[in-house]
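Lecture notes, continued. The same structure-token format from the folding unit now serves as the input rather than the output. Read the line below as a description of shape only.
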């Protein structure tokens, strides 16, 4: 399987980088950086609290929109683009491990998503925090945010890859999950919010309500501990990748034609 993983990963990564879809997503990810520059130029004397609120808005954009969009379209396309392009038969009839195909292609798309998000985050984060955080403090917080986003990309991409191998119309179900279930459930009181991936991502963020006052990121959040959140996200990623491999191994895909 490892040989198939490496072959598939290398085969799909470069074309994915050069694809028009990647350029469109890259342009979209520049939006937070552009908004950050406009905000800083328009309100150069704003207080630390106002800057903090705007920074929260940007992180909400990453967590609840950009992350989900990237993972949804790349995760579900792991299988669906092969079906739509009628190339699935060329993959499955070659002496390749089916699990290696899913894992290699998912890893290639997740790496591309991670690069897009981290570059965008770096631009917007350091624009927003220039002059109000020391270099060491800013780097530490950026790494924490970056780590949270990487965990989110892994978990969401694994889940949407599973939907993609299981369902023909996975994008529709994925949209309902990403912008319905995830957007609403995280604000439910009590343990209900723990049934959303976003809950564990927000639990790992470096800011707390008591330390920062009102925060969009921590509104109604009853955080899980860092250790449990990390375990939950790793488990979610591993379980859905395993399910995706299992379904892809045994499911028979029939062309609509």
């Amino acid at each position: 399987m490892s040989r198939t993983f490496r072959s598939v990963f290398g085969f799909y990564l470069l074309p994915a980088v050069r694809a028009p879809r990647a350029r469109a997503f890259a342009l979209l990810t520049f939006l937070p950086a552009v908004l950050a520059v406009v905000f800083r130029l328009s309100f150069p004397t704003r207080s630390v609290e106002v800057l903090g609120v705007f920074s929260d808005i940007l992180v909400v954009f990453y967590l609840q929109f950009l992350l989900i969009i990237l993972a949804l379209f790349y995760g579900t396309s792991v299988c669906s683009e092969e079906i739509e392009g009628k190339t699935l038969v060329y993959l499955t009839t070659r002496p390749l491990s089916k699990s290696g195909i899913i894992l290699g292609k998912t890893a290639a798309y997740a790496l591309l998503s991670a690069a897009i998000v981290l570059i965008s985050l770096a631009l917007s984060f350091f624009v927003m925090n220039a002059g109000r955080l020391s270099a060491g403090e800013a780097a530490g917080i950026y790494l924490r945010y970056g780590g949270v986003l990487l965990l989110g990309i892994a978990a969401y991409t694994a889940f949407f890859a599973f939907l993609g191998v299981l369902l023909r119309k996975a994008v529709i179900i994925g949209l309902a999950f990403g912008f319905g279930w995830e957007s609403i459930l995280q604000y439910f009181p009590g343990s209900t919010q723990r049934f959303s991936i976003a809950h564990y991502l927000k639990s790992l963020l470096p800011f707390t309500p008591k330390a920062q006052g009102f925060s969009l990121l921590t509104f109604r959040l009853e955080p899980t501990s860092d250790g449990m959140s990390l375990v939950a996200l790793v488990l979610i990623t591993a379980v859905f990748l395993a399910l995706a491999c299992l379904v892809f191994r045994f499911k028979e895909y029939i062309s609509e034609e």
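Point for the exam: The mean pLDDT is 83.
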